[in-house]
Amino acid sequence: GDSVTQMEGPVTLSEEAFLTINCTYTATGYPSLFWYVQYPGEGLQLLLKATKADDKGSNKGFEATYRKETTSFHLEKGSVQVSDSAVYFCALSDRGRGSTLGRLYFGRGTQLTVWP
Amino acid sequence: ETGVTQSPTHLIKTRGQQVTLRCSSQSGHNTVSWYQQALGQGPQFIFQYYREEENGRGNFPPRFSGLQFPNYSSELNVNALELDDSALYLCASSMFRDGTEAFFGQGTRLTVV
After folding, report:
1. What letter does residue A82 receive in the DSSP assignment?
2. What does residue A5 show for φ and ψ, rounded to 5 degrees?
3. Cα separation of A21 and A43, whole Å?
4. Residue of A52, A53, A68, B39 with fewest CB within 10 Å of its CB?
């Protein structure tokens, strides 16, 4: 079945460091891929998305490229800030199979802590 | 802020009791999905409603049930609560029938003791 595997945390970085959080997926068909962020005590916020191979999603300095050949969607940011401290979830949607149901499959999340 | 609101934000129940969680979807959204997020885990899909009908279900027992109302708000009901039901319950609404492009509420933290 469809699934997402993301790197285990926690990840601790100094402000202005480079961030990579790895995410790989297993899916039949052509899923859409997402990164969600969860700040303490809050629900999920969509950070960025990509709907087809080679698409690059970007938002707030974060980027991720949909790589079909390596089934990956790694999250990157060139210079992290203290305010980026949160839990990051990689997810896929099986909408591409033509199903009327587009449930999201999430990874286990990666806790990011950025120190000043 | 997404416009998806959930109530209550926190509650504590005793094992064996029943609970109802509520979700008000974003304006214009007619699909609602519910997810369970256990501590330290990613959210797991419970079920999805489109225009008041169940549109799909994840691997949860029948004691997890739901409703969607004509205004597209939704309820999640859990009967015979178990300790493992303790989790953050997230509601997500979408303007698409397949539930993608979803916006999440802040969640309801349920603790079963």
Report:
1. G
2. -125, 125
3. 20
4. B39
Which residues of chain A lie closer than 8 angstroms to B6, CB-CB?
43
Q: Are A73 and A53 in contact (CB under 8 A)?
A: no
pLDDT exceeds cutoff 80 at A48: yes
Minimal Cα distance from B32: which residue of A? Answer: A103
Nearest CA-CA distance, residue B16 and chain A, Å = 27
| Chain B 25-84, residues with CB within 8 Å of chain A CB atoms | 33, 35, 40-45, 48, 50, 55-56, 58
Give the integer Cα–Cα distance in Å for A92 and B32.
17
Q: Which residues contact A17 (CB under 8 A, 6 or more apart)?
A: A79, A80, A114
Summarize pLDDT for A68-91 with one digit per residue, the tens: 999 999 999 999 999 999 999 999
Mean pLDDT, to the nearest integer, of A59-72? 96
Burial of B102 (0-12, 13-18, 19+ CB in 10 A): buried
Tell me the C-alpha to C-alpha distance, in Å, between residue B61 and each of B47, B55, B81. Answer: 11, 16, 12
B69-87 confidence digits (pLDDT tens) = 998 899 999 999 999 999 9
Are residues B21 and B110 in contact, defined by beta-carbon separation less than 8 angstroms?
Answer: yes
